[in-house]
Design goal:
Oligomer: single chain
Order of helices and strands: HHEHEHEEHEH
Structural class: alpha/beta
């Protein structure tokens, strides 16, 4: 299923993101990655809808869901349990992509589509914090976002366009 841009062309529509998620069996990719990498202790999973985050958390063990509507005290309790290792996985839409700093995150699963590379960088930034107890942070692209062109033709600068066409900087 093709992703469609919203009316101002800045982001994909929510409906098309969810449709693409379902059509590409992304849920199975997420669950497979979680099972295959059981050694990962602190995992953030970014999904396209609150409903999907809550559904996954309802049946995946040692997990919880956080969304923009999660009451503050409940969110604090989930994060506290995550930091303590009582919860292994937090499913969320994009709410933990900024302002959440926990250096022990050792796996991020991206399972959403977004036109904004800045949004992707924010998500990946959750895993690049250095921690002496952490060897690395595995990033699993369960939704295929790694294949998107970070500079779609409608937004190219003159410099980018010139480089793509094989030339140097514009004069």
């Amino acid at each position: 299923q093709a992703l469609r841009f919203n009316s101002n062309g800045s982001e994909y529509t929510d409906d098309s993101v969810v449709t693409a998620y379902e059509a590409n069996n992304v849920r199975e990719n997420i669950l497979g990655a979680l099972e295959y990498h059981k050694e990962r202790k602190h995992v953030l999973v970014f999904v396209p809808s609150v409903e999907e985050a809550e559904t996954l958390a309802s049946f995946y063990p040692d997990s919880a869901a956080i969304s923009g509507t999660t009451p503050k005290k409940q969110r604090e309790n989930i994060i506290k349990a995550f930091r303590a290792g009582e919860i292994r996985v937090i499913f969320n839409v994009i709410v933990l992509s900024t302002g959440f700093d926990y250096p022990k995150i050792d796996m991020i699963i991206t399972a959403y589509s977004a036109a904004s590379m800045a949004k992707h960088y924010q998500v990946l930034g959750r895993g690049i914090r250095i921690d002496p107890e952490k060897k690395d942070c595995l990033v699993v692209d369960a939704g295929g976002i790694g294949s998107i062109d970070p500079t779609p033709a409608r937004g190219l600068s003159a410099l980018d366009k010139s480089r793509r066409e094989g030339g140097g900087p514009p004069h």
